[in-house]
Amino acid sequence: MARTKRVRVKIIEMLKQFGELDTATIYTKLNDTKSGFGLRQGCSSAALSNILGKEPIFVKSSSHLDENAARCLGNTGGSYKVSSWKLNDSLLEQYPELADYFTNSYLISGKPKKC
């Protein structure tokens, strides 16, 4: 099973429970093994950004460029804006198998993957 499938399913479970979350919160919950959503080996911020940006089931509800974007506290004491994400419920209703660990999301785009 591909690692991005596990991360995708964990994020779907998270967004089903909480509704809408920002990128920093998703990252923190995926890397915290005690949160119930944590992965044993965690997830890098680059991998998380790729999954959130490329999977059609995740919709950006507010961009980090918006004035009312969520703010996150940085390591040096400053803060920065982060994007917020929610589920594309209509797509999830149409393809409920996306919440399964064994489904490839590239199949929903209509273009089969080239080998």
Question: Explain this structure to me?
Answer:
With 115 residues, the protein is an alpha+beta fold. The chain has one domain: Orthogonal Bundle (Arc Repressor Mutant, subunit A). Helix content is 36%, strand content 17%. It has 4 helices and 5 strands; from the N terminus they run H-E-H-H-E-E-E-E-H. The protein has helices at 3-18, 23-31, 45-54, 89-94, and strands spanning 20-22, 58-62, 70-73, 79-82, 84-87. It has a 3-stranded antiparallel beta sheet. The protein has a two-stranded antiparallel ribbon with strand order 3-4. The two termini are 17 Å apart. The mean pLDDT is 79.
- Give the termini distance in whole angstroms: 17 Å
Q: Which regions are unreliable across 5 or more consecutive residues at pLDDT < 50? A: none
Mean pLDDT: 79
Secondary structure tally, helices = 4
Q: What is the β-strand count?
A: 5
List the strand order in the largest sheet. Answer: 1-5-2
Q: Please give the domain count.
A: 1
Please give the radius of gyration in angstroms. Answer: 15 Å
